[in-house]
Amino acid sequence: MGEQDNNKPGEEPTVAGGDATEVSASEIAATEYVDQGAVTATATATGFDRAAELAKAAQSQQGRLLKGRFVLEDVLGRGGMGLVYKARDLRKVEAEDRNPYIAVKVLGQQFKEHPQAFVSLQQEAVKSQKLAHPNIVTVHDFDRDGDTIYMTMELLKGDPLDALIKLEAPFSKEVALRYFRDLCAGLEYAHKRDLVHSDFKPGNIFVTTGGTVKILDFGIARAANKNALSHDFDAGELGALTPAYATEEMVRGEPPSFSDDIYALACVLYVMLTGEHPYQRKSAADARKAKLKAARPECLNNAEWQALSAALSLDKAKRPATIAAFRDALIPPRRGSAIKGLAALGLVVVVGGGWLGWQQYRAGQAQAEAVQQRLETAQDCFFNGDYACAAENALVARNLAPDNPEAARLLEVARKEQAERDAEVLVETRIEEARTCLDAQDFACARIKAQEVLALQPGEPRATSLLESASRGSRQLKIGGFLQRGNECLAAGRLDCAQEALSDAEAAGASAAELFPLRQQVEAQQAQLAADRAALDEQLSALRSRAEDCYRQRDYDCVEQAADDVLALDGTNTRAVELKQAVATAREQQRFNQQTADTFLKAARDCLERKNYSCTIAKSESALAIVPGYAPARSLINQAQQAQQQAKRNISIE
């Protein structure tokens, strides 16, 4: 948009400030504006106050406010004649326009002293303002604020063609030819107004997000008719020429010609189709010296290549005379039969007299004149693109003169063209509906609308792109749902659930980068759980060893305590349960042994009272055998043994 390509011959444009990143002549992206202050009851007052605040803030920074109206913000690009800014139009802010942004091109400091600089920019604005066409950028106004000369233009959203070529070339044949048709429409419109672009190249072409192709920078376009302007300053004096897209005539400084734009357009189309320049980025003059020849793109048939190679000819005489001739040679009109029919209709005028006389003979002068008038009206409507009008009048003519072949033929072609137009309108409607659905993230709706377009026009590139976008969006939505479920599972500590969500997302086509955050958290928790398990296993092992030692020592209280500690950490630990059961069994056996030992001990005491010391000792030893170390049993044995010895001492021999 404007002079933004810093176009010294042979150089590529760079971002203002010396950044090495390449930009095109109009690397401009629109920013949606929402007035956050629009909350009062009087909307106009709110917009006015907001505009006043912005103006006051801009005035504090020298050079930011132009004409008290345009607040310069971001630098969008640097060109041969100055800088292009994204600017906020305070008049739009006052009106609370949701998108108050425009583009402003300011004449560069290095050209302010040029004697014809002001005239050049003024001529640029006048020429560009004459070009009101959907495929040419809109220029609003030209003005100056003190010694600052500037012009205002529409702000575009999308990508410059040279950037798209670097990222995506070669384009598909369908996309390249669609862009080519739009470029032809814009150039043909300018040529009909005697304007030659003179610096047509990918850097001066912009593809909006809506798919519209716009031609930028008619700043060096010079009138083909030198009498068209009162001032003849040649902006080419500023070095605005790109050799790779310049004809020999341009390099030699010859007057501008429509053929210059035709050659440049052919080079641009070749680059879109192949990703390469037809002559290794050399000017036509250098290409001739090097005897270079362009190679045929694989996607073109013989007729198409013949049309393109003619436009690429280094000889001006061999190129098509007009943009329309180039376009029609490369892409024959679909309504060829209609044109032939209309050519035949021209005979009506030639033979009208004879046919009219015949009709006069049959039905009289009045009816013949009515038929002739209807046919002429139908032809006018047809050539003006009003096919419904053409069909209506041709139908009346046919009804008045059923044998008139021209009326029948015109009716047929008009209906055919109207049907094609209706189909095109339907396609455009479905395309817009698909885009609306896509913006609303209703991917199923977008997919259905795109498929409807493809059913009407198989291979339609915008519908194909929308269908792919809908598929990608649907996939991303599905992947996003899996990843969200995985994060929820992770937050709840359900690692198995999170791992399952990861697997589902991967199966849905998620990339490694998309899976990485969740996968990293899952692996971190798995590692932490493994560490905790290892520490727990070590603690459980120590407690189990202690319980085993106590059991061997028959310290059942110790066994029970250690087993309880194990079960507190691991409620299903089988060895701890077994040890507790073994302790319970041992304690029960211990009680039974004690009872048995006490029974023997009671019998031993009875024996001692009867002074049957041998019986006492035998019963007590039985109790000791059952309960080793049982003190009462040991005591009874001692008593019985002492009584036996005393009895032996009391026995005397007579």
From TrEMBL:
* Bilayer-spanning residue ranges: none
From the Swiss-Prot or TrEMBL record, what is one GO molecular function term? ATP binding
Residues that bind ATP? K105
Domain Protein kinase: start-end pairs: 70-331
Q: Which keywords describe this protein according to UniProt?
A: ATP-binding, Kinase, Nucleotide-binding, Serine/threonine-protein kinase, Transferase
Q: Name one Pfam family in it.
A: Pkinase
Q: Where is this region: Disordered?
A: 1-22
Domain of life, per lineage:
Bacteria
Q: Where is the composition biased (Basic and acidic residues)?
A: 1-11
The protein's name: Serine/threonine protein kinase
Task: Identify the species of origin.
Answer: Parahaliea maris
